Amino acid sequence: MASSSPVLHLFFVLLTLFFAPTSAVHHRRIASHNYRDALTKSILFFEGQRSGKLPPNQRMTWRRNSGLSDGSAMKVDLVGGYYDAGDNIKFGFPMAFTTTMLSWSVIEFGGLMKNELGNAKTAIRWATDYLLKATAQPDTIYVQVGDANTDHACWERPEDMDTQRTVLKIDRNHPGTDVAAETAAALASASLVFRKSDPAYSRVLLKRAIRVFAFADKYRGSYSDGLKSYVCPFYCSYSGYQDELLWGAAWLQKATRSRTYLNYIQANGVTLGADESDNTFSWDNKHAGAKILLSKAFLVQKVQSLHDYKGHADSFICSLVPGAPYSQTQYTPGGLLFKMDNSNLQYVTSTTFLLVTYAKFLTKAHKVVNCGGAIVTPRRLRTIAKKQVDYLLGDNPMKMSYMVGYGSRYPKRIHHRSSSLPSLSAHPAKIDCGSGFTFMHTENPNPNILVGAVVGGPDGHDQYTDERSDYSQTEPATYTNAPLVGTLAYLAHSFGQL
């Protein structure tokens, strides 16, 4: 028979490839990174940021207990939570956003995480346990522990902290709508994460979220106004608080399915900036995230009164797509989405999460995005997101991973106190405030590897300097990792790694 013919054999091979499921070919040909390994490490990172009494199953073992008297200055228990970045301060605003994005990652992609789902939930709960403490008193939220100015004058391990643990709060007379509404979003989104696995805890979170949002909405004002000398320029609320009110209401609408929040969004959406054209999604500006979240209610749940949010979300997407009409996003020569020199990768991780999440909603609804006549499919959105993640993991002009501990070449001198100073087991004696700078200024690699930490990243020309003093490039942050968790879960599943 002619089946032994090399030409015919090649024909059958090509025919098989042509009719094979796209995903199967895709997996064999394009999975250039171990997204599952990156997912594991991106979640592990949060253990290195823990404040408080560490549990017996702590995996980042070079970290020890710290901040065990936090809150005592105000006679409240504020032990726990996360240090936001490379310093020893607990900032409530970015911590709440981190919590919301970890929760959203689990809500959309937790079903794909397999063994990492438990670790992701643990990371969320470490934050929500703290946020429940910070919101225990009605119409009061404790929004910061530690003085950033005095902390930044020191280079010391959190285990050695001797700087003043100043406690800052907002209340009726000193409002902070932005941080309060973000805290409500964090609690509401986390309530969805725990709804099935721990319904009692979920109810506590949701009840608190409702109360905190009511406080945020009733007593309006930016927390930066009253606490400017403490929170600026670190985490000023530059975008105002309207975006957080829309974001918080969107999460409460999703968590409660109550007509109350749907009516609130319909009545206040325009005044809260639903049609804002700003395409930056970050710990400060939530407009883009709120648009994507609310578009799901229309696309998937068929809430017709929210149909405008499909258009708002599409506008955001069109601003990101390279070469499309209305595109207004800058990319580096190497292809990295670029917003600003200071910790640019935080915008990359938050944006890629919105891309894969919106692609999921569009796919379920059998919809596409129309950018001035140019049709953008869900697959295109996923391709853009994958390219950004691949750049972060090593496909870049520097040929290095920007996730610590991933790949063969990654940042070794990150701007992070506990990573750069010897651990307690290696150096039991206290390292005081000023002495730590000896370690900070050395050229030696950090002795403790903060596995999974995503640093600030390269500049607009794809250049990266691995120096501790350059915090804009070498400092990691919880809010950079949080949205990446969801994107990596999606990619790991798509390429058959989970």
Automatic annotation (TrEMBL):
It comes from the Eukaryota. The keyword Amino-acid biosynthesis does not apply. InterPro entries: 6-hairpin_glycosidase_sf, 6hp_glycosidase-like_sf, Glyco_hydro_9, Glyco_hydro_9_Asp/Glu_AS, Glyco_hydro_9_His_AS. GO terms for biological process: cellulose catabolic process. Residues 1-24 form the signal peptide. This is Endoglucanase. Residues 35-488 form the Glycoside hydrolase family domain. It catalyses: Endohydrolysis of (1->4)-beta-D-glucosidic linkages in cellulose, lichenin and cereal beta-D-glucans. Keywords: Carbohydrate metabolism, Cellulose degradation, Glycosidase, Hydrolase, Polysaccharide degradation, Signal. Belongs to the glycosyl hydrolase 9 (cellulase E) family. It comes from Lactuca sativa.
